[in-house]
Amino acid sequence: MPPPLPADQRTAIIDAVRSGASVRQAAAQFGVSVGVVAKLTRGLARERAPAPKKRADYDRARRLEVLNRAFTHALELLPTVTKPAQLQAWAVAVGVLIDKRRLEEGEVTARTEMVTADAAREELARRLDELAARRQLRRERERQTG
């Protein structure tokens, strides 16, 4: 069993850990085992736990600025894209940026997935009917005002 540590060395180890050194760093610095440092500083773990990092809150204008910078960077990268895998990664990144920009502008970004051909035909027919109804309304308004 090794001899007990002198009081001044114990104090120095505790001070090192209090000032931010890890248990391993303090053990290496003072030439003692990790277990010795852990025992000496057992009660300090809660005291020296770092405060949670504050999340940077970006308002809408700042988020749009970041998105614009990302689009500019993506545009600058495009000439360097020479391989299909690079193009795929670039296209995915730009697609995500577009979706994020649409979200910031309040546009709908939802996608509809059709499982069967019949479902796809039905959805297409419904949308075409909707467009035809809008067109009819527009024509009626134009007749009334014009």
Question: In brief, what are we looking at here?
Answer:
The protein is mostly helical and 146 residues long. The chain is built from six helices and no strands.
Task: Draw up the topology in text.
Blueprint: H1 7-18, H2 23-30, H3 34-40, H4 60-77, H5 84-104, H6 117-145
Helix pairs in contact: 1-2, 2-3, 4-5
* Uncertain ranges: none
Tell me, briefly, the overall form. elongated
Count the helices. How many? 6
Total domain count: 2
What's the end-to-end separation, in Å?
103 Å
Strand content: under 5%
Give an overview of the whole structure:
With 146 residues, the protein is an all-alpha fold. It has 2 domains: 7-44; 58-131, no CATH class. The chain is built from 6 helices and no strands. Helix 2 (23-30) packs across helix 3. The longest helix is centred in the C-terminal third of the chain and has 29 residues, at 117-145. The mean pLDDT is 85.
List the main descriptive attributes of the protein structure presented here.
2 domains; 6 helices; 65% helix; mainly alpha; 146 residues
